[in-house]
Write a structure and sequence with these properties.
Number of helices: 4
Helix content: 25-40%
Radius of gyration: 16 Å
Strand order of the largest sheet: 4-3-5
Mean pLDDT: 89
Bound molecules: zinc ion
Length: about 130
């Protein structure tokens, strides 16, 4: 891994799971740490870390993306995402996991994860 990739991944690891950052958030936080990496490189690196299985990517509304550390502690958590401001809250649901499991079983698939991302408008944006 290149030093830039390490720095970006370390930022997520320091913040822990349950934190959802945009590429701009990552850029700002790195600047606060005196780490200068261009936004274009951050975008590319985030995608790469998703492909490598370190991060999970959430799609918000048009073009909006948030990234979070993939955590083995809670692989099947779900998100309530405000499409206006990007506020992202996590929730857990046995029902969603059960439905995913039974759909996979019915069709002979091996279940890896079942996550639900709910797009909504938060109280502040309503
Ligand atoms: Zn999350
Ligand atoms: Zn909002």
């Amino acid at each position: 891994m290149t030093p830039q990739r390490r720095k970006i991944l370390a930022l997520f690891e320091d913040l822990g799971s349950g934190i959802h950052l945009s590429a701009e958030d990552v850029h700002d936080k790195l600047l606060n740490l005196d780490v200068r990496i261009s936004l274009a490189t951050i975008y590319r690196t985030l995608r790469l870390l998703v492909d490598m299985g370190f991060l999970n990517e959430l799609e918000l509304s048009e073009g909006g993306h948030r990234f979070e550390l993939l955590s083995l502690d809670k692989p099947d958590h779900h998100h309530l995402i405000c499409i206006r401001c990007g506020r992202t809250e996590e929730f857990e649901s046995e029902v969603v996991i059960k439905v995913g499991r039974s759909a996979a079983e019915d069709l002979g698939f091996k279940l890896l994860e079942s996550t639900l991302n709910v797009r909504a408008i938060c109280p502040a944006c309503k």
